[in-house]
Amino acid sequence: KEVQDSFPDFNEYSLQAACSFFADMGYCFLDENISMLVTNLQWLANTFSGLLTFSHTWVKDGVVPEAHLTHVWKGKTAEEISQFMLLLKEFEIAFPKRELGQWIIPSMLPEERPFSVLRDGTKAVFKLDNVKFERLYKAEVLPLGFLGRLIARTQELNGVEILSLWRYGIV
User: Fold this and answer.
1) Each residue of 49-87: pLDDT tens digit?
2) d(Cα 153, Cα 138) in Å, to the nearest integer?
3) Which of 155, 79, 166, 46 lies closest to 69 in space, CA to CA?
4) Distances (CA, A) of 126 to 2, 41, 135, 143
5) Furthest C-alpha separation in the chain
6) Sign of torsion over alpha carbons 24, 26, 32, 35
7) The 3-state secondary structure of the chain, one letter per residue
8) At 128, phi and psi to the nearest 5?
9) Minimal CA–CA distance to 105: which of 158, 138, 68?
10) How many CB atoms lie within 10 A of CB 60?
């Protein structure tokens, strides 16, 4: 809408085609799902790196409370921060946690399995409405980020209680 207001002589189709062309050429980023057009790609990279860094401690064990995001992006409005998080969700970098007000950043989850989680180190048991099931997956190769996305999406299942999560597993 803002882009269309800036170019009143162009119809919506022409603007959409132009934005798509420039996005395909790498001059901008266009995401129609969240209605975002970014023309400064360095700004986008800097915005992502504001959260995905080890130079602050706002993200603890891969989870960040929304209240801490104002510290990550100082001087940004709540609306801007909300847009940043939607963009990170769209890129599957951050996922809203079932408990409102928290986000999971799978790439920042701890690498080590918590000692108290699995005594034998081989099985994970979940309780789903009084039905127990367990899964153990072993794979030689997985697509980069697959496990993080699986972990983040598991917490969206109704009736599943997450006891612990780390970069390579979940209980």
Assistant:
1) 877 776 667 778 788 888 888 888 888 888 888 888 888
2) 19
3) 79
4) 47, 42, 9, 25
5) 68
6) negative
7) CHHHHHCCCCCHHHHHHHHHHHHHCCCCEEECCCCEEECCHHHHHHHHHHHCCCCCCCCECCEEEHHHHHHHCCCCCHHHHHHHHHHHHHCCCCEECCCCCEEECHHHCCCCCCCCCCCCCCCCEEEECCEEEECCCCCCCCCCCHHHHHHHHHCCCCCCCCCCEECCEEC
8) -125, 100
9) 68
10) 11
| Other Cβ atoms within 10 Å of 43 Cβ, number | 11
- Quickly state the pLDDT bin for 127 (edges 50, 70, 90): very low
Cα(21)–Cα(71) distance, integer angstroms: 36
Give the C-alpha separation, 110 to 46, whole Å: 23
Q: Look up residue 47 and give its two tokens.
A: 């915005």
Asked whether 153 and 94 are in contact (CB, 8 A), the reply is: no
End-to-end CA distance of the chain: 44
The whole-number pLDDT of residue 101 equals 83
For residue 16, which of 3, 26, 25 has the smallest C-alpha distance? 3
Q: What are the residues facing 104 on neighbouring strands?
A: 63, 95
